[in-house]
Structure formats: structure tokens, C-alpha cells
């Protein structure tokens, strides 16, 4: 695979190095012990939501599918593993032929989740499943954290558009995934060109303070921008004095000026003043964009302010206080032997002191009340009760090693809105609380 | 550039897309206004440290140099910008020839920093400098946040080794940069194979609970691991009952067992019990590795416990509560005209309500007291006082577009230890406080 095929801003010849050392040593030991071929079921789930959060958002599934497809050990990687003595020759031989041939089921991307939800289920030989732990968790833990924050922000923003502009606050490639996850959670556009290139997310932006400071006067800067980008552009009005800048902006662009951007100060107060001034100047349709250290609470507090769009950076890409999820990838069942017909045995860590989990391959369903509102996340290992058959959450993503469920990002985003809309109303309260529906095990 | 050249786990044909849309529209407007060629000075600095932190750690500089060198607009990128109408034809022409030809000075990587420290200074035409904002900030904000957390953890750990194992908790490529930054901050090794491949950081790891659960008994699993990885391996002892596992481990591997790993429970209590049990079993040299949700406070609280190494994941890769820094990239001076001889004029945003900055190209020096301990970060725009001439902090990194200051990661790591050692002792207190030395402007 190379960049043109995947439309990535970087080539990804292989995702096989996004792997923890111990996955390869486990493979080596299992190969030698004759247990590597035992059919195994791994599940991704989280024991809890981040403190105070009412629901989680599954994001990154599409990226997981890409990563699994491109998980190959090429010569460069094998040479490195050999040179550093990470694994022995028989294991290198096994890795050189590695290709995931199993099945993956999971919550569809954009769906909401709760503690215990089996977000992803990976089945195949122990050898092929164990190696995927790190790359799958990296993607889901990062992307779901960003999508959860984005979802809270988009609830708070209502119909007003949200611009993702956090690339400068996170790793340059994490930023691209963050834009994608933000879009899933309800954002409208991004400042990040790589996210536009890779995922087709609309990109926006006009100018920074540096552009005003480059010019001899603020008027010169506004004239240069309007001459080039048209009167529909967005002028940044807080480099010097806001009131003077707004006056100059309308003088330069006329009342058809597209928007002004405010990036500092008391946004509530300034937005009201600027709206009044714009109206008085006849620029009644000129929009106001605010972009200063916003989070979901600041967005909510500006609900009554004359604000037309929000730009969000730091708090979005850092998950608004929760930059990662606590998803884990656990072996929940494995065959008694390498015989393909051997039955699966549920397994689970049992030590006292926490981190226990429930063994067995799970199904999950969301039970709705009579009005169609979610009332419980039901998880079980036995047969699915008749009333929940058509409320099951897991869908087939990979079948016999082939991806069977690619979908456009807009479908994922719409699914998120739909899933969120079916939660009890208190789901979108920003205040801290328990998961909005309980998890029931049957 | 391709993967073998850069030894990256992914090919980076270009870093030019790690750019915010507005940098290109500013370029377009400046080209049209005839101001794009004005000589400009941009500086990276932060107005404050994360709340309660005593010092910051510069990390990512080496990655910035790679990014600047690979900042090129190839046909695929230009085609995208054209198709989406991001910029006009003359601007595309300018981008197609883009190559940074200016100068970059900065704090050497591993150095500590304080509010206002001019961590990086980028000089050249406005056109060439303005485009680098996002990629430079992405790298420095991410990597410095991780290095700062790592530095606090390595202070707390003293001589005991620290293993970075957070790949699963952050974006798969952010993880590679996080391993690098953790090493700069004092970590010893990583679980992440991509970090070993790219940066030569030692990789470690043996087994997870899944390996024990794969086998019919814990003894089977331990026997399989020891048969394959030798008695020097690390056995994970908390899948079922810890005391029983320790007994089995020593029976299987003998008293020469390398280490046991504890990944759950009350680590202080369990470590003491396990040490006592190992000693009683004659395994006096068997080490104890602990790896459960550690941060710098947990590491410090285990100082008196019989622990030989720490594995740190989530809290490391999320910056222990501060996953990003607040570094900004600001135009601080620019020429009056495009005449190469035109003098530079200091510029700065002046609006009320915060986010102001100090104009002018800056120098920085760290003043030491008579015992050689740092007592102030001194920053100025005029001539450097005689007494501070040889305490200056900025070094030349890029000269006329060519990188002149590549260095091995071990040099960077040693520099960090040295810089930290010169701070007042209270720098390494974990409790919240003010920056350990004041910033003085002259």
C-alpha cells in the first residue's frame, strides 16, 4: 500500500511495528509450546467511562480496518527484529507470512457505548489475534476519546457549526485522526489540510494575527485580505482595538463582509458589543466566529450570545480532560487444543485487587423503552433473548481476513447523531454523572 | 525521502500537509499585496507552564528539523489544493517551489524552559516562515508535554529504570514520538517496537495475561515461557493468585528467575509480600517490576517498596494531566519593506483581554548564582549583558535552510539531566508550585 492508494498524508507500508515487544515474545513462546494455533476470542471493552461522562462514542473503527489490512512484516521490519534479537528464526518465519485471516465483529463506528460494551471482538488463532492488541487499542482509545469530547461540544453548540482547529496542540498525525473523530462527533469542518486530504473533511481558515502584524496598518492587512479572498472572508478583529477593527473591517469590505473572528477577551461581552456594532454599521448578516480556548462548557455558556460559529482547538484534541479511554483487549475464550473442532472455553483474569473481567464470547444489545428511548445496555454470553434479537449491536467488520464493512464518514456521523438521540435526554447534560443507562449482564 | 532514509515506521514524502488552511490563504493574500517577501521573525514560546509545574522540558526539536527538511508540496498535494480551491494559481506556483531557506535558532533539545522562554526562533521571508506554524507547534507541544511528565517520573524513580509502555493509550504515531520524548525525559526503555526501529530506544516485554489464559494452567504458561525465553525472563504473576504464582514461578524457573511482574492490586503491599516470598524461596536476585496505572506520585510512594523497575503507560503518554503545552508561534518582528536591507520592526498583538506578547527578536540566558544554581531566566531584545554572554540558551539549528545541529538522542537525554540538575532543588518536588526560577525581561 502506498499513499495514493490510501490517500494518507504519509505512506503506511505496514502497521506491524505499532506493536508491543511482548506480543512477539508471547507468539514465540506459544509457537514453541504448540499453543499458538488455539482458536481465540479477544474482546475490546472498557471497565468504566471517564469520570463523570454519561456515554462513550466508538470512533476509529474505520482506521482499525485499514491497520489490520496493512499489518504485514516486510523485510525492513523483519531485519530489525532479527538484528535486535526480539524473536527467534522460527518466529520470524511465521511473521514473514503473517496475514490476519480471522473474523472481527464490533459496534459500528459512531455508536455510543457504556462500561462493559464489547466494542470489538477479534477471533482467529492466538498467533494472529495477539499481535493486533496494541494497534487496535491505540486507534480506538485515541479516536474514541476525541469523538466523546466532540459529541459533548456538538450537543452544546446546537445548530451552530463547530470548526476543529487543534492540530497545533497535538502530534501532527494524531491531529489528522482527531479531525476525523471530531467530524464523527458532530464537528463541521477543520483547519487541518491533511484531514481534508485524507478524509475529505471540509477545511477552512483565513488569517492569523501575524497577517495583520505583517502589514503597516490593520487597514492595509484587511484590504490585502479582502482584495484577495473577497468580501465573504473572515477578518480577525482583535489584534489591536476590537471596535476600531470592526469599523475598519466594514469600511474595507462593506456590509457584505462574511464574518469577523474574535480570538481573545471576554467572548460573551465582546460578541454582544461586536454584534451591536455590526448591526449599526448595516452589516447585519456578517457572522461572528469565536475561537479562544473553548470547551463544551464555554460553548454552552455562549448559547445566548450572538455567536455564529465556534472554533475549538486544545480541548477538542485533548478529549476535554480525558485524552484517552481505558479500553483493554482481553482474551475471553480459547480452544482446548489446536484441533479446529475443539470447543471454546471462557477464560478471565481472576486475581483479587481489581482488573478482573468476564470470560466468554459476548453479544450486546440496547434495550429500548416503549417510547424508543434506550434503557439498558444488555450484555450476555448465552443465547440472545427473543426480545433483544433485533437490538443487537455487534456487526460483522472483517470476515476471513477481508474487510466487509467500509463506510463513508458521513454515514458514521449520522449514525452517531441517531444513537445519541435515542439516549435519555440527560445524556447530553454536561454536568458530571453516572453512565446514562446501566449495563446489565445476563 | 522514504522510510529507509529516515528510518521511520511510515514514509513521510512531505510534511507540508500538516498545515492549517489559513497559513495558505495568508500566503496568497500576502503574495498579492506584495508583502510576502518581508523578512520576518517568528518565535515559539509559552505564556505559562501547565498549572503547578515547576519547569518545562524542550522536546521534539530533532523532529522539527526533520519536518522542516521534508516540507515540500509535491504533485499530489498541489493537486488537492487546486481541486479544493484552497489557493489560487500564483500561490500554487509559489508552493511548488517551496523550500525553507531561512535560519532557525532554538533552545537545544532536552533543555528546560520557563514562561516566556523563546524556545525556537524562525527567520526568513514571511512566506516561508508562516507555513511552518502548525507542524512546528504540533511537534513541540506534544513532545514537550510528554518529556515534562517523563522528567517528573524519572526524578521520582531515582535510579530505578522506567519502561515506557503507553502505546496502546495514544495515537499509534504519537506513541512513537512519546517514546522518544520519554527517553529524553529519563525513561530507560519502551514496549513500542516502532520506537525501537525509528530511534534505537531499547525495547522490552515478555508476556500478558492472555498468555497465561491461553494455557491450561499457569504452570503450563510459565513452563512455555521459560523454555522459550530462558530463566532470565519476567513472569507475570497476577492472573490468578499472586502467592501461588510466585511459588510456581520459582519452581519452574529456579532461583535464577529474572523478574516477576505485578500489574494490579495494592502495589506497595503486594511488592513487600512478593519480595519476602521470593527471598524465602531463595530467589533473592529476582527483580520485581510493577506496571499498574502509575504516575509520578505512585512512583514516589513506592520509593520505600522493594520495587526494581516501573512500567508506565497512560499517565506518561497523556502528559500526566497536561497532554499538551500552550506554546504559540508568533510574529515578533518584520521588515518595513521587501528590501533586503530594510530594518526589522518589533511587532506584537496589543488587544486588551489577554494573549498579548512582547515584540522584537529575543535572546535568552540562564543566570546562575555563585554555586552554579539557576536563579533566573533572563530574556531581552537589546544587547546581551556582558555577564550573561556565555550563559545564552539559543543555538543555531538551521542555517540558510540547512540543518546544522542534528544530534544523537543520548546527547539530548544527558543534556536534560544536566539542565535539571542545575535547577534549585525544589524543581523536582512533585507538589504544585510556581516556576522554580522567575523570568526576567531586560
Automatic annotation (TrEMBL), chains A, B:
GO molecular function, one term: nicotinate phosphoribosyltransferase activity
Membrane spanning stretches: none
Swiss-Prot/TrEMBL keywords: Glycosyltransferase, Ligase, Phosphoprotein, Pyridine nucleotide biosynthesis, Transferase
Catalysis: reaction(s): 5-phospho-alpha-D-ribose 1-diphosphate + nicotinate + ATP + H2O = nicotinate beta-D-ribonucleotide + ADP + phosphate + diphosphate
EC number: 6.3.4.21
EC class of the enzyme, as a word: ligase
Domain of life, per lineage: Bacteria
GO CC terms of this entry: cytosol
Pathway the protein takes part in: Cofactor biosynthesis; NAD(+) biosynthesis; nicotinate D-ribonucleotide from nicotinate: step 1/1
A Pfam family that the UniProt record links to this protein: NAPRTase_N
Cross-referenced InterPro entries: Aldolase_TIM, NAPRTase_N, Nic_PRibTrfase-Fam, Nic_PRibTrfase_pncB, Nicotinate_pribotase-like_C
Modification after translation (UniProt): Transiently phosphorylated on a His residue during the reaction cycle. Phosphorylation strongly increases the affinity for substrates and increases the rate of nicotinate D-ribonucleotide production. Dephosphorylation regenerates the low-affinity form of the enzyme, leading to product release.
Domain Nicotinate phosphoribosyltransferase N-terminal: 17-141
GO biological process annotation, one example: NAD+ biosynthetic process via the salvage pathway
Task of the protein: Catalyzes the first step in the biosynthesis of NAD from nicotinic acid, the ATP-dependent synthesis of beta-nicotinate D-ribonucleotide from nicotinate and 5-phospho-D-ribose 1-phosphate.
Annotated family: Belongs to the NAPRTase family.
Protein name from the UniProt record: Nicotinate phosphoribosyltransferase
Upper classification of the organism: Bacteria, Bacillati, Actinomycetota, Actinomycetes, Kitasatosporales
